[in-house]
Structure formats: C-alpha cells, structure tokens
Write a structure and sequence with these properties.
This protein has helices at 4-7, 15-23, 29-63, 67-95, 97-115, 121-148, 155-163, 165-184, 187-192, 200-206, 211-216, 220-236, 266-296, 302-330, 332-353, 358-385, 392-419, 423-444, 453-456. It has 458 residues and is an all-alpha fold.
C-alpha cells in the first residue's frame, strides 16, 4: 500500500517526510491535471490583464482620451494588482494556497464582466482597479502551489511550461482583440474575461492544498492525507513509486515577514525585486502601449495595429518556450542575464535608429520581447525557489508587488514621453533598465538549478 511508509513513520507529515515523499513522485497525469486546472485560471489572468490594450484603440476616439489619461487607465489595473498581490499573499500564508486562489479568480472574473458595462472613463478606471486586486494575487499563489508539489528533477521545465499559459493568454488577448473588437465591439473582450469563474467549480474538487504548507503549519494528518491521495492517483495510473529516501531538513519554524530580510535572504530579496521591477517595467509598458502607438503615432488602421501587436505576443510565447527548454540546462542566473542583455541591445538599437517607422518598431520590440518573456516566465519559477515554505507565498506575492509598481509607473511614464513627442526615448529608458537588471543577476544572483527547495531555502 502506498500509505504504509507514512503510517509507520513516527515523523509522518513532518516537513522532512513531506519533502521526501514529494521527491519520489514522478511527473504524472496527476501533475498534468493540476497544471491544466490552474493553467486555465492563469490563462485568463493574462487575458484580462492585457485586454484593455486591445479595446483602447476603440475607446480613445470614443471617449476622447488624452495620452496622460491612457497611461493612467493602463496603470489603474496594476495599482489594484499591487494591493491584491500583498493581500492575497498574506491570505495564502494564513489560510492556504487553494482558498486564496479561488478568491482571486472570483474577484477578477466578476469585475471583468462589470467592465463590459462601463459607461465612461471614470467608471472603467474604478472597475479596472478592483479587477486588478484579483489579478494580482492569482498567478503568484498558483506558481507557489505548483512549485511546492514538484520534485527537484525536472522542476524548472515543468513549472515554466505551466507558466507558458500566461504568454499564450497574452496572445489570445491579441488574437481576440484583432478578431472580436472590430466586429463584436469592445465589450465582448471583457465578457470573455469573465469565463474563469467557471474554473472555481472544478478547482476546489481536483486541486489539493499544498502538503508542504500543511506540514509547515503543523497540520500533519492533513498533509499525510493529501499525499496519500496523490500517491494513490499516481500509482493507480500505473506508475511505480520508489522507496522513500529519508531527508534531513531544518526544523519547522513559524513564518515571519523578517525571513525575507534575514542574513540568508536579504541579497536574494533585493536581487529578485530588481528583476521583477526591471522585467515588467519593460514588459507591460510596451505591450500595453503598442496598439495605441501604432494607431496614434504611425496612423496605422485598427486591424493592422492589432495584428502587429499579435505578432509580438506570438514571439513572447516562443521566448517562454525557450526558457522552459533551457532553464534546467544553463541554470537560472546565466539564462536570465543573457536574456536581459539581449533585450537591452534590441531596445538600444531602436533608440539609436530613431524608431522612425512602424515596421522598425515592430522588429525591435519583438526581438526585445523574446528576451523579456524569458524573465516573465522564469521569475515565477525562480522566486519561489529562493524562499522557505513558511513564507514562500508572501515572498512571491511581495516580489510581484514590484511587478505591479513597475506596471503602474511604466505606462504612465510612456504616456508623458509620447505626449512630449520623444518616442525613441521610451526605448532608451527601457534598454538601460534591462541592462542594469541583467548585470545585477549575473553578479549577485543565487543559482537554484537541480537543488531541493528545502536545501536552497532552509
């Protein structure tokens, strides 16, 4: 029986026992099921986060937005995401990963539907802030849960392949925007964004609470029960479970916000915060603005503007796939530094050439986006690896708070730079940020490749 090992082990349900049992689990149909269910929610998280970019070319002339108002509207959702990341991160540490994810999905689904009924700039602004609260919490908590159920071997590829649904969601937003907005109206984008509410019906039934979180909270019986159920399902699919190899890990400790700034973690925290800020200052600032830049500055037709943005989003998926296939080969630090410097060179070339045509901008931004999406996907693997279970969800959510802050500052800054008639300077600013982040991770990053979570983060 798959339960005998834990029933006869006096340490059953301890942090060490749970880690050992997770380490012996092969990647199975059960893992794929969890990835699909959580992936559906993450897909729509991405879709909803970027849907505004593809309705703006319609709303700008309809409601007569100024460039400054456009930047503030784009930033409004990220302001809500900042609040949501911190609040739901705390909630996930206190009450568990699963209920926190469900709450996030319900908030952003309901508010997406509400956005379809916005009647002016102010109403949409407020609704996007509230929707952002749910969007900000879902991905970091889902990624924390995915990391906590994976064995060390193959963790990088498995986790990044899961996170690949996020850039696919961005592509879907671009594709639906190109197809639906001109034919069915801008409201249809927000109606589609409400669909993930249906995921909650299956998530509670099929996704268990994190055994690592349960063990860390001292809920040993529940941790054992969760792992017994997982092992039964894995064994029932015909996969053989090896014997449990005892593991020595640090003693169970209570969570503390100070853990992120202790002797082991201070440098990690500062490096990863800079990576999140730099990556998403470039990422969302460009992707959210590009349809409007093509339309307003280069005066391209609506369909062409949306198609150009779709091309960039497709290459973002390629960047995410490249990360999944190489992150366990080259390691986190080397891959991330190369990708950021690659992006910096592409953006610097746009500034150097003056960004004088839509086609030049399309090529430069797309090449840069290949590198940026390596980080956009990889950071959701890397950040949970850097912290212990007792504070992992809060640490990841706090780190993504810098994503939200960057996404508030970036689009607003782009609005003012564009209004001043200096489009090329946008690319100079982002090139310098990407270069700085690349150098920092190269010099100060912590390598986590092929290391047990409890070993990386005692």
């Amino acid at each position: 029986m798959v339960t005998e090992a834990s029933e006869t082990n006096r340490d059953a349900g301890s942090v060490g026992d749970v880690a050992a049992r997770i380490e012996r689990l092969p990647i199975s149909k059960w893992h794929i099921k969890v990835r699909i269910v959580l992936g559906m929610a993450t897909f729509f998280d991405a879709f909803d986060a970027l849907s505004l970019a593809y309705v703006l070319p319609v709303l700008i002339p309809l409601w007569t937005f100024t460039p400054a108002e456009i930047g503030l509207l784009i930033s409004s959702g990220f302001a809500g995401q900042l609040v949501g990341a911190l609040f739901f991160g705390w909630l996930a540490e206190r009450f568990g990963r699963r209920p926190a994810v469900i709450a996030c999905i319900l908030v952003f689904s309901i508010m997406s539907l509400a956005c379809a009924f916005a009647w002016n700039y102010s109403s949409l602004f407020v609704m996007r802030i509230v929707q952002g609260v749910g969007l900000g919490g879902e991905v970091p908590i889902a990624m924390t849960l995915i990391n906590e159920i994976c064995a060390t071997k193959g963790r990088g590829r498995f986790v990044v392949l899961f996170e690949l649904v996020f850039p696919i969601g961005l592509v879907a937003a671009a594709l639906f925007g190109w197809w639906i907005v001109p034919t069915m109206g801008w409201q249809a984008m927000f109606v589609i964004g409400a669909l993930p509410g249906l995921v909650c019906l299956v998530l509670h039934r099929f996704i268990p609470e994190s055994p690592r979180w349960l063990a860390n909270k001292g809920r040993r019986a529940q941790a054992v029960a969760a792992l017994d159920a997982i092992e039964r399902e894995v064994a029932g699919a015909g996969q053989t479970l090896p014997e449990i190899s005892p593991m020595k890990v640090g003693a169970d400790r209570h969570a503390s916000f100070k853990d992120m700034f202790g002797p082991i973690y201070l440098r990690r925290t500062l490096v990863v915060w800079l990576l999140w800020f730099g990556t998403y200052l470039c990422n969302y600032s460009l992707t959210a603005w590009m349809p409007s830049i093509y339309r307003s500055i280069f005066h391209l037709p609506l369909e062409v503007s949306l198609r150009y943005s779709l091309i960039t989003s497709i290459f973002g998926v390629i960047g995410g796939l490249a990360c999944a296939l190489t992150v366990d080969v080259f390691g986190r630090r080397k891959l991330f530094s190369f990708a950021l410097l690659w992006s910096a060179v592409a953006l610097l070339s746009l500034w150097w050439t003056g960004a004088t045509s839509a086609e030049t901008v399309l090529i430069g931004v797309t090449v840069s986006y290949l590198g940026i999406t390596v980080l956009s996907n990889g950071l959701y693997l890397y950040t949970p690896e850097l912290y212990p279970t007792r504070v992992r969800a809060l640490a990841v959510s706090s780190a993504t708070g810098w994503l939200r802050l960057a996404s508030i500052i970036g689009p607003t800054a782009v609005g003012y730079i564009v209004a001043a008639g200096e489009l090329k300077n946008v690319f100079l600013v982002f090139a310098l940020v990407a270069a700085l982040a690349g150098l920092v991770v190269m010099l100060f990053g912590t390598e986590t490749k092929s290391r047990l979570l409890e070993d990386v983060s005692p």
